[in-house]
Every structure is written in C-alpha cells, then in structure tokens.
Amino acid sequence: MDEEIELAFTLNGKAVRRRVPVRLHAVDLLREVFGLSGPRVACEHGICGACTLRVDGQLARGCLLLAPQLEGTDVWTIEGLTATGEIADLQNEFHARNAMQCGWCTAGMLITAAEILDAPAPMDRQAIREHLSGNYCRCTGYQAIVDAVEATRQARAAGRSAA
Amino acid sequence: MNRILREAADTPAIGAAVPRPNGRRLLEGRGRYVDDIALPRMAHVAFLRSPHAHARILAIRAETARGMPGVLDVVTGQDLAETVQPFAGLLVHFKGMKSAQQRCIAVDRAAWQGEPVAAVVAETRRQAEDAAARIEVEYEPLPAVGSLAAAAEPGGMIAQPELGDNVCFTREVEGGDWDRAMAQADLVVERSFRFPRHTGVCPEGRSVIGDWNPADRRLTVHISHQAPHMIQDCYARLLGLSESDVRVVCPDVGGSYGIKTHVYGDELATCALSMRIGRPVKFVADRLESFLSDIHNRDHAVTAKLAVKRDGTILALGYEGTQAIGPYSVYPRTSVVEGNQIANICGQWYRLQGYRAKVRALFTNLAPYSNYRAVGHPVAVGVTEGLVDAAARQIGMDPAEIRRRNLLRDEDFPLQTPSGMKFEGMSHHRCLDTVLRMMDYDSLRADQAEARRRGVYRGIGLASMIEITNPSAMFYGVGGARISAQDGCTVRLEPQGGIMVLHGCGEQGQGTETIFAQVVADAVGVPMGRVRLVTGDTDATPYGGGTWASRGAGVGGEAAWQAGRALRKSILDLAATIHQRDAAQLDIRGGIVVDAATGEQVTDLAEVGRVAYFRPDTLGGVRPELSVTRHYLPTQYAFAFTNGILACHLEVDPDTGFMKLLKFWAVEDCGKVLNPLLVEEQMRGAIVQGIGPTLLEECLYDERGQMLNGSMVDYLVPMAAEMPDMEVAHIETPTRESAIGAKGAGEAGTAGAPAAIMNALNDALSPFGAELTEMPFTPERILRALGKS
Amino acid sequence: MKAAGFRFLRARCVAEALALKAEHGEDARFIAGGQSLVPALNLRLLEPRALIDIAGLPELTGIRVERGRLVIGALTRHAALTGDPLVAAHAPLLLEALPYVAHAAIRNRGTFGGSIALADPAAEWPACCLALDATMVLTGPHAEGERRVPATEFFRGLYATALGPDDLLLRVEIPCQPAGTRNAALELARRHGDFAIVGVAATASDRELKDARIAFFGVADRPMRFAEVERALAVEGVSAAAEALARQVDPPADLYHSAATKRHLAGVLLRRAVDRLRGAA
Ligand SMILES: Cc1cc2nc3c(=O)[nH]c(=O)nc-3n(C[C@H](O)[C@H](O)[C@H](O)COP(=O)(O)OP(=O)(O)OC[C@H]3O[C@@H](n4cnc5c(N)ncnc54)[C@H](O)[C@@H]3O)c2cc1C
Ligand code: FES
Ligand code: FES
After folding, report:
1. Domain count, chain B
2. Are B640 and B628 contained in the same domain?
3. How far is B237 from B231, CA to CA, in rounded Å?
4. Distance A136 CA to ligand 3 centre (A)
5. Whose CA is nearest to atom 4 of ligand 3?
6. What is the CATH number of the domain that holds B61?
7. Using CA atoms, how far apart are residues C104 and A58, in angstroms rounded to an integer?
8. Topology, domain C58-175
9. What angle do CA B418, B757, B375 make, to 5 degrees?
10. Reported ipTM
C-alpha cells in the first residue's frame, strides 16, 4: 500500500483536509483527489510549465511539488483564479488574440503571466518573453501570448494612473 | 464581453477576425481532454518497453508483477497475438514498397528501443508502473541499424532481416527536358543538405481510453486523435469487430500536428486489454515514452543541384534524397509520404525546364517514422531555396532578384509542372513584392552593410514556397487506404431557431469549429452565436476524414457551406409555405426571414422551427426537411496548392556561434481567408515549429539505436525567449473548385522557416565564406563552419 | 512516469534530521526545494524509500552578515536573493548570476544550498562560491558539531562534494566584498534558463586584475579556477590568459557540444568577463 498522510492546505481559497498518498505530485493530487482538471502535465520533469500553480503567492511547478510539501500552503489553480475574476482581463486578451490553440499550455501560461501584470517597472517584450521562458507552447508561436500579456499590463497600468 | 457574438444582421462572419467561441473553456481550465475523462470501473495500463533497439525476446517472467498491489492483468505480445491483427502501412500506388508486419505488442523480437513488450493493467497508473518495473525480460540483443548512414551502407546491418534489405520504397521522377536544360547551363550549383530526425512533442501525450461494454458488445474509444473515422475503421478491422461495434470519440486534443493521425500499437493494445478485462482502460503516454514511441520524421540526407545561366535564369533542378524511417512502415498512412511529397513538389514553384528527383526510404531500428506537420515540405523548400540562394551568391545576384526572374508568374497558371503536379493559381510575385515591402528590404540591406562595418553580422533570408492542401482521394484512397478524403456535414434547424452543425472534421485547436460556425452562419443567414458544433464522434457526425494535410477549412468548410445553403433553402421554402409567399423573394438575414426586396420581417427561425416541429399538421402536406447533409470532395485537382514566402532577419555572433532571430515576415496565399485571426496564429505557430528543428530539435541516437536525448531536459524545444516577432500578411487567390474558395493554411510556416533561416544564416556568414546546410544549426556547427571549433 | 513509493518524514531541527537519516540510512534522502530531486523521482532515476524534508529546519534559513561575512542559509530560495540588500551590498556577483538560474517558478522553490549540495557542474552557485572564496558549513552524524570546508576543497567531482551521504549543508559564508569590487557573471545557454554550456563567475578588487578570481562552470566535472590563467592575466594580460586557459581546460563533451567547442567558448567568455571586469565598477 502507498503510504498516506493527512494533508491540510488552502485550495482556491477554501481550507481542505484529506488523507492522501504521499507519492503524488501536486498536479496528480489536485486532479485525482480534488477533482480539478485545470492543472496538467506535459513532462513531469520541470521543463514545460504546463503544471504551473500559484503556491503561497508565488509560481511553482506542480509536477515538482510532492503532496506533503503542500501542507499549510495556499494553493491557487486556474479554476480559482477564474472564479475570483482576478485574471479576467488577461483571459479576455488571450481570447481576443487567439493566444490559445489546443489549450494545453494555457492555464500555466496564464498563471505565469499573472505574476507580472502588476509589476511596476516597465517591461519590454523581451522581458515578458523571458518571464514566460519556462512555459512551453507548441501551438501558438508565443507572439499572441506576449501580445496579450503586454496589452493587459498596459491596460492595468493605465487604470492605475487614471485612478 | 465573454463571447463575441456577431449579432449584427448583415455583417458576414466569413473573413472576419472572430475569436473562437470554444476557446473560452480552455482559458478557464475547463477543456476536456482524454485524461480528464474518468469512467466507472476504469483501470490504467502501463507498457514495458524494449530497452534495446533490436533484440530477440527470449523469456518474459511476470509472476512477481502479477502479484503486485492493484494489478489486474499482465500481457505479452503473444497473449494478444490471437485477438489483434498485425498491421503495416502499405499503399498500392507506392509501387514496390514493402514492410514487415507490426504487432501491437512485440512478439519474439523488438525492433526499436521503446517498442512495447508487455503491458500491465492495474487500478492506478502508479501501480501499473510499479508492476511493470518488476517484469523480467530476457533479451538477446541483435545488431541494430542505428542511423541513416548505417541503413544505407552496402552490405551493412538489416533492420528487418526477413525483408532482405533496408529499402522500403524508392521512386524516380523526371519531367521537362533535363538534357536540354543542362546543356544551356552556365553553372551548376550542387550542395548536400541534412535535415534532422525530430518529433512532435505534443504537449498532451498520446491518450486513449478503450471502453469495451460486454453487455452491448461495443467498444467506445475516447482518443486524442485527428481522424476519428479512420480509427474506427482501423480498430474495427484489427480487433475483429464490425465498424458499427466501434464508436470513436475525440474530445479536446492537446496538440497533434500530425503525430495523432496514426495507429499506434500501444493505443490499440489498450482497447484489446479493455476487451480482455471488460473494464475501461486508460493509457496516457508520458513524456519519456512519447519520445520513444511517437512518430519521428524528416531525417533526410540530400544532394541536389541547380542549373542556372549567368543572367540568373534557373533551368533545372536535380534532387536525390534518402530518408531513414523506422522498423515498420507506419499504419495506415505509411512512412514514405515525406519523400514522395518532396519528389512531387521540390522546386516546382520555379519555371523549371528540367527536373529529376530520386527518393529512397530506408528501414532502421529507430523509432517509427511518419507524417508530421508539413510532410516533406521543409526538405523540398529547404533544398530548393538553399540552392537558389547559393546560385545567387555565386553569380552575384540579389536573392530577391533571382526569385523575381524565376518564380512562376500569374500568367503561367493553370499549369502542369515537370513533376506532374497541377497548379490552379498562385501569386508568387505579389507575395514577393509584399514581403519586400513589409520588411523594407532595401533598408535592411543598408543596415546590414552598416552593421558589418561594426563587426555585427546580420543576415536576411527569403524562402518562396508552395504547400499541398485539400488533398483529394489521390492522396490515400487511390492507394487502398481507407482514409476519407471527403467530408460530410449535417446542418439542422432547432425548434428555437438555433443551428446545430455535426461535422466529420474536428477541432485540434486550430479553430476548425469556429470556421465551420462562421461558414454555416453566413450560408444560412444567422448570427454566428446561434450556431453550435458537434465534432469528433463517429456516432454523431457524418463520415469524414478528420484534420490533417491542411484540409479542415478547405474541404470541411465547403461541406459546411453546401449543407448550410441547403438548409437555408429548406427554411425559405417552409417560410414561403407558412406565409404564402414566393420563396425566391425571401431571404434570411441575421436569423430573420425577410422580404429580400424591402427587408421587412416575414418571420423568424424560431417561428419556422415551431411550426415545422410542433405544428407540421398545418402545412397542408408539405414535409419540412430541416436536417440536411452534404458531402464534399475536391475532384478537379489532386491538391489545392497554396503559395507564399517567408523572410527571416537574424544576427550571428561569430565568436560564439550563437544566433538571434530578430524578425520573421510571412506572406501567404491560402485562397479565401475565412478568419485572419486564426490563420495568422496558425502561421506563427507553424513558423515556430519550423524554427525548432532548424535551430534546436533533433532526436539524437547512438550507433546502437539508443536515443540519447529522450526527455525535455535534453531534447530542446523552442521557448518564448528565443522566438522572434512575426508579421503576417495575406494575398487571396481563391480556388475556383469550391464555393468558399479556401485552401489550407496550417503548414506553410513549418515548410518555409528552415529555408528562410538557412538563407539568412548563410547571408550573415558570407563575409567569412562560410556556409551551412546541415540542420540544426547549432553553435557548434556554426563555429565549425567558421573554422573555430 | 510516476515516482516510486516512499515515506515522507518531516524534520523539525537539524538534530532530528540527522537522527532520521541515521535511522533510514542509504535508503533515505534529504529534500530541500525538490527542484532537482523530484524530477529524478518522477523519472525513477532515484527510488529512495524515504524522503527527509529539511525545508522546516530553522538553523538553515536566513541571510545575515556576521563578522565580515555574508551568511546564506542553505534553505534560502534562489528567488530570495533578488533585491536582498545584504546580498546587493556584500556579494553582488550573486545577483549578476541570478537571472541565469532556471526560470521564475523554479527559482521560487529551489534552494541555494540545494544547488551547492547537488553540485551540478554547469550550475551557477558553485562557481560563484568558488570565485567568492566562500566557506561551506556542514554538519553530520559523525562529525563533532560543524565542519567548515572552503569552496576550493568542497567540490570534488561530478556531483561529488565534501558532504558525506548523511551530512547536511547548513549555510554558506562569503567574505564581504569591499566596495568597488568588480564582478562579472556570464554564461552561454541555448535557451534562457537552461543550464549553461559554459559559464564564468569572476571577481577582482580593481581594474588592474592582479587578484582576479575567475571560476568557470560547465568545463569540467566541477566548477574550476585555473591558477595559471589568473596568473597570466595578472602578469601578461588577457591573451596570455586565454592561451593558458586553452592549455588547461579539458571540458567533457555534452550532447550538443564537443570538447573543442566548449574550450573555444570558455575562451570567449574569459575575454568577455575580463572586459566586464575592466569596465565600469
Ligand atoms: C527546468 C530546470 C532548470 C534548472 N536550471 C538551473 C540552472 O540554470 N542553474 C542551476 O543552478 N540550477 C538549475 N536548476 C536546479 C535548481 O536550481 C535546483 O533548485 C537546485 O539545483 C537544487 O535545489 P533544491 O533545493 O531544489 O534541492 P533538492 O532537489 O531538494 O535536492 C537536491 C539534492 O541536494 C540534496 N540537498 C539539498 N539540500 C541539502 C542540504 N542542505 N544539505 C545536504 N543535502 C542537500 C538533496 O538530498 C538532493 O540530493 C534547474 C532545475 C530545473 C527543474
Ligand atoms: S509538467 Fe511540470 S514542468 Fe512539465
Ligand atoms: S496552445 Fe497548444 S500548447 Fe499552447
């Protein structure tokens, strides 16, 4: 039998507690135990970023986090970030520019991009590209994604200076 | 602003940059891919794969594995040999081709590293893997053919000893007057080229759930695939079922690019295992097994020559290429289409007077090999455009100028090329002029000269090209493959006035469903938001070919148009009956039936639907036919050829051999542009897939056939930081064969990017007299060309 | 592929971590950020029976200055160096190297100490430690208290360090660099965030470069300084140093680069690093 532990953490804003096998990585845990489908894997060795989650306010590779390492953390997936509306503007920009084709990389891209939407310092396209450089997309050619991130950043900055 | 619905009455949806309605779910983490499907009683399979490229299987001991926690079944190839038929991709129009028969799980002998040799079914994937690790297999390693060079060596090792040699297929093509053309030549430039073996790296690994229901005696296959009806036919025959006993459902697909148009032994075995245990069985290829078992492609060694006159006139092109395929010809599309397409298209966009091509496909003990995005094109375009630039350099002519003098002209069409291809219409010179304008060619050249003085080496590369799209039955059907070239579409009016579209050609993310919705919306006369799509289910949709060879918009779109027009007629006839009007004087606009002359509303579709479905008794014997199906197949031309041009601007650091892509431009003529937003992103994605194997991607093997870089750590895919911005423009030369006039658009970027980069690189390196024709262009190769390593 | 089964044991202090390790022996591994270990588990390259989670050890955290030394706790995450005023003041070389380390998501979880303990020959931190004359502070079940090992003796071979199988790296101590010190961290990688093909981390007290310390990574089984190169640079200049490097360095080929290419690239980076050291302070 797989060793199990009692695991308690916050998932998309709700406290959860469950007995889970320790050998699951975070994506398998969220999919198999918590019934989510937004987090996905494309490599399980840290390269592709499809598994990207927000853990304690920071980006993390879901495939490189073991279930027990989530103890006491605050975990957000694309489902939660969609529900709060936090990245609705970014999602709209992605949609308007067709910055997703097959959609496999999309949640990871959105969560990764979300981290720099409010970064105060100006960021040129190359800096955006470098921030996204750990997220693999085979379909889009990246440009529409960079465009969408750039547009959202600018809109938010304009909103801030208008406020 | 969740959905952008085109409610405006008269704005056509076709041609508009409409975002994909079905993209929203992908943005919210609500896509539904095979791995998201969990069925009652579902079990999981893991495959044990051969660690050897070629080995006899002497014994398989699985007792320990059988006793492991959660294990339901353990099978070897032998256990499935009775129930699953062997297979090989052989097409009769590829004369003389041969192949050994492949088993879904190897029997007695494994012929590549990664071939399944046993399978474990367990309650979870983890348990299946734990048990697979405990199966003991005794192998006797056999000599393996570990490279193209080894396969070609006379008297060398043989990948499939029973075949006698490594030759799967050869073909020679000759057209025009070779000798006359050569006699006029002032010079003949000859080069060798190498195109690496690479693979698709779909973000979603191949995935399948076989769900055999013993009560219904019916197999439902949920599969990440591009061609559901093809899978239905193949699986039925290989599993000894009738076609109607097999239902194939393709949900969202996480990238396919040609990788998912084939029959794979492990996927087929998954279904056979479901039939054995009477429970659904899921298989999801992980990244490591994807590298070893997804089809590989290209792996071409070429020598080619171009005969030209001093004034830049191109006379003749000669091509000789060998491709290293895997140990079997992949079922059912074969492993030789890549070479065959090259023979068909290489150089054919120039006014050639003579043409010769010789292609050869050789078996190896490397991973199976077959069609991947832009089959053959990167090689054909790379060789042609590389030679054209080499010739231009040699005679001191600008690369744009030599193209201007030799590209097929508008007035040349229609024509039959020396290789025998029929071209309906192209726009090479308009594309060339447009791209030169977009990139401001003269300024770039001035910048290049100025930068060189500062010791900065920039290069500009052009690549003209053609692309095979909208294949007719001359592609596979003629060779006996049961792969549909036609597509069917059913369009139905719903009682509340909505339009339901059932289509045999599905979505892989390129936006096929959006295109169909646009086409049907205009065909019927309704806002696009009223149109709903069902694709990817053999139980629901008309028979169709699926999504490959850039056929979705051109072939599938036309079927949708025809069906939509037919439904429109039915609706108008019915409205005319209900309202005692003349159907010819009615029109449907924005979902409203109006008087065509005055625009006055006569009725709406919901009212037509209400009467048709709930009060047909009031129609005085008229029987409304509000579900209509149309099928479409191109017949005049074997293929709808598109054309275009790519341009690349890059900078090389001659100290390090590193290259930075500064910018790409693409002008494409894919006929009628149905949705520029989708076409442009297709183009950009395709360019990046072309950049991959030109700079980074290569499946590396040692001489024993062991893959050296089978993980994403070592196999380098393009990531955002190194990719350039890309500007895309369109020229429209619609095909007259169909009403909508669309050709395909999915592959041109992949076809042309390698050539554009190669030409730009060699342009940048020309002050050093260095030239590279072996891809990928790694820093090491560039340094070597510069004499620095 | 999915990781094989293991037990997950959480240590609350160094003593407990060492005790757990003693109890489980060779079958157990310490896990810090997991950014190198978990990929190895997922690939089943490693199948330890137990993981001992050291992420909660208070003794291994924090960045501070003590007696003229910048002390970096082993558990300091790569990202935590960003914008740290003490690092910026006393070891700015690290901040020059930081952008080369992996990607944001990995920098958020991977630890400074994990990278040193792993000692990947192409990693940035081990080379920086060598250039900065750092001292590694370790402890283990057999040693009495703490052991201090200078960077020059710490890295011993391919993924091999002075850490015994049951030892813990506690912290790294770096002599505070005087103001005006010149630094250069450069690397060549095919893609942003990849491990380096070759890289260099260098520091010198002034533009004369008489005392430059130049550590290369990706050129051997461990980070390397070449005395002859540094001497040639001090005495004769960069060309002589490059020649010395070409003689001394014998890099292992990797999948995409031959020894000759790496040797050439190391020479190019040396020249660039020297230019950088000589440039603006
Ligand atoms: C895609 C990707 C790209 C990367 N790119 C780079 C890069 O460019 N440069 C780079 O330097 N790194 C890179 N890394 C590795 C990353 O920096 C790791 O975080 C780091 O190497 C290990 O730190 P960790 O805390 O994650 O260690 P872990 O993975 O937890 O542990 C690694 C090893 O060190 C041991 N260990 C950890 N901490 C201690 C300790 N305190 N005492 C004793 N033993 C210990 C563990 O037992 C284990 O054997 C990359 C990783 C990935 C996945
Ligand atoms: S699945 Fe985690 S990085 Fe690829
Ligand atoms: S949209 Fe398919 S991988 Fe990014």
Report:
1. 3
2. no
3. 10
4. 8
5. A137
6. 3.90.1170.50
7. 9
8. 3.30.465
9. 50
10. 0.97
Residue with tokens 């350099």: B393
CATH T-level assignment (fold) for domain C182-278: Enolase-like; domain 1 (3.30.390)
B284 & B310 share domain? no
pLDDT digits (tens, 9 = 90+) for B295-324: 999 999 999 999 999 999 999 999 999 999
Do A96 and A146 lie in one domain? The reply is: yes
Q: State the architecture of C7-53 in CATH terms.
A: 2-Layer Sandwich (3.30)
- Kindly report, residue by residue over C10-26, the tens digit of the pLDDT: 999 999 999 999 999 88
The Cα C206–Cα C281 span in angstroms is: 8
In sequence order, the β-bridge partners of residue C50 are C7, C28
Average pLDDT of the residues in C238-263: 97
Degrees, nearest 5: CA angle B110-B260-B380: 90
**B198 touches B297 (CB < 8 A):** yes
pLDDT at residue B9 in the model: 44
The stretches of B115-264 forming alpha helices (DSSP H) are 125-132, 148-152, 178-183, 228-239
Is the distance from the beta carbon of residue A66 to the nearest atom of ligand 1 less than 6 Å?
no
Last residue of one domain, picked from the residues B293, B312, B347: B293
Q: Whose CA is nearest to atom 3 of ligand 3?
A: A137
| Structural domain contains residue B116 | yes
- The tokens for C127 are 């080379």
Residue given tokens 């002497």 in the structure block: B58
Provide the shortest C-alpha distance from residue A47 to chain B (in Å).
Answer: 6
B719–A2: do the CB atoms touch at under 8 Å?
no
Give the CATH number, domain containing residue A42.
Answer: 3.10.20.30
The domain locations on chain C are: 7-53, 58-175, 182-278
Domain that holds residue A70: 4-81
Q: Which tokens sit at C51? A: 């993981």
Helix, coil or strand: residue B313: coil
- pLDDT score for C129: 98
Tell me the C-alpha distance between B404 and B645, whole Å: 12
Q: Do C255 and B722 touch (CB under 8 A)?
A: no
pLDDT digits (tens, 9 = 90+) for C120-170: 999 999 999 999 999 999 999 876 789 999 999 999 999 999 999 999 999
Q: Do A51 and A115 have their domain in common?
A: no
Neighbouring-strand partners of residue A10: A15, A74
For residue B118, give its domain range.
Answer: 34-142+202-293
Q: List, for residues A48-95, the tens digit of each pLDDT value.
A: 999 999 999 999 999 999 999 999 999 999 999 999 999 999 999 999
Q: What are B256's two structure tokens?
A: 């396919």
**pLDDT exceeds cutoff 60 at A112:** yes
In B744-784, which ranges are E strands? none
pLDDT value for B549: 67
User: Among B436, B111, B680, which residue's Cα sits nearest to residue A98?
Assistant: B680
* pLDDT of B2 over the 70 cut: no
State if residue A26 touches ligand 3 by the CB under 6 angstroms criterion.
Answer: no
Residues of C in contact with A49 (CB under 8 A): 103, 105
CA-based max dimension of chain B: 89
Ligand 1 neighbour C102 (Cβ under 6 A): yes
B415-429, B630-644, C126-140, range with the lowest pLDDT: B630-644
CA distance B137 to B130: 15
- pLDDT at residue B484, rounded to an integer: 85
Query: Is the Cβ of A143 closer than 8 Å to some Cβ of chain B?
Result: yes
Radius of gyration of chain C (CA): 19
On average, the pLDDT of chain B sits at 95
Domain count, chain A: 2
Question: Maximum distance among all alpha carbons in chain A?
Answer: 59
Choose, out of C38, C46, C100, the residue to mutate when testing the contact with A (most A CBs < 10 Å). Answer: C38
Picking from B361-370, B456-465, B623-632, which range would have the lowest pLDDT averaged per residue?
A: B623-632
Joined together, the tokens standing for residue C182 give 């010149």
Does ligand 3 come within 6 angstroms of the Cβ of B676? no
* Same-domain status, A75 and A90: no
Q: B34 and B284 in contact (C-beta within 8 Å)?
A: yes
